[in-house]
Design goal:
By secondary structure, the protein is of the alpha/beta class. It is 39% helix and 19% strand.
Length: 237
């Protein structure tokens, strides 16, 4: 029997998830596919918020290792998440889903500043909320932003969208013998140094008993299955 569905969730999308096989930028077909899946669960009455990365446009850590000042590189990465958020908002609005983009770095002409109570109110009114610009601080990833926002708005789970169907012991693309985990504890993720979310994000989820479901966003219907509590991907709790 399926578990009870969740009412309020945070979907964590990497920037790479938007670029498809293009290798850079935003693939319109992938953007539409993700929007369709979000619309599907939104119609079920689920309160959906999305935290989006910017790695398809600019990756701050990579630039920092190449010699750029880390803070400057991270701020540039935050701006890249705004571009992705606006692109996702556009396709969702065109499909009939009301949205709001809330940014951790104020830019009034493009998005609303992030205020926790405002975000919760938007969700209660049936709007999909897209969080951009990470936490607004350098040295913190968008994974940590997802965990922070989820805790702040009292979300019931984080849905970590990836290109593979769960967490593996090794990269399944490079290692055919990689073992897939159906369930993991937070401590197992930290101890094994599994590349799911960064340690700060996992620790924040652990401290607040916030489950994480890692699943393949490329297969249509998976997002709904995760929200409905069906057996899919890897559950970290």
């Amino acid at each position: 029997m399926a578990k009870a569905r969740k009412k309020r969730v945070v979907l964590k999308l990497s920037g790479e998830a938007l670029m498809g096989d293009a290798g850079y930028g935003i693939d319109p077909a992938v953007n539409i596919s993700i929007a369709d899946q979000v619309k599907e669960i939104h119609k079920e009455g689920i309160e959906v918020s999305i935290v989006i990365g910017g790695g398809n446009i600019f990756r701050g850590l990579k630039a920092a290792t190449a010699g750029m000042d880390r803070s400057t590189a991270d701020y540039m990465g935050m701006l890249a998440t705004v571009l992705n958020g606006l692109a996702l908002q556009d396709i969702l609005e065109k499909s009939g889903v009301n949205t709001r983009v809330l940014t951790a770095i104020e830019m009034h002409e493009l998005a609303e500043p992030y205020i926790r109570r405002r975000a919760v109110r938007h969700l209660e009114k049936g709007r999909v909320v897209i969080f951009v610009a990470g936490t607004g601080n350098p040295y913190f990833t968008t994974d940590t932003a997802a965990a922070l926002r989820a805790v702040e708005i009292d979300a019931e789970m984080i849905l970590k969208a990836t290109k593979v169907d769960g967490v593996y012991s090794k990269d399944p693309v490079k290692h055919k013998g990689a073992k897939k985990f159906s369930r993991l504890t937070y401590m197992e993720v930290l101890r094994k140094k599994l590349k799911v979310m960064d340690a700060t994000a996992v620790s924040l989820c652990m401290d607040n008993n916030l489950p994480i479901v890692v699943f393949n966003i490329k297969k249509k219907g998976n997002l709904k299955k995760a929200v409905l509590g069906q057996k899919i991907g890897t559950v970290i709790s």
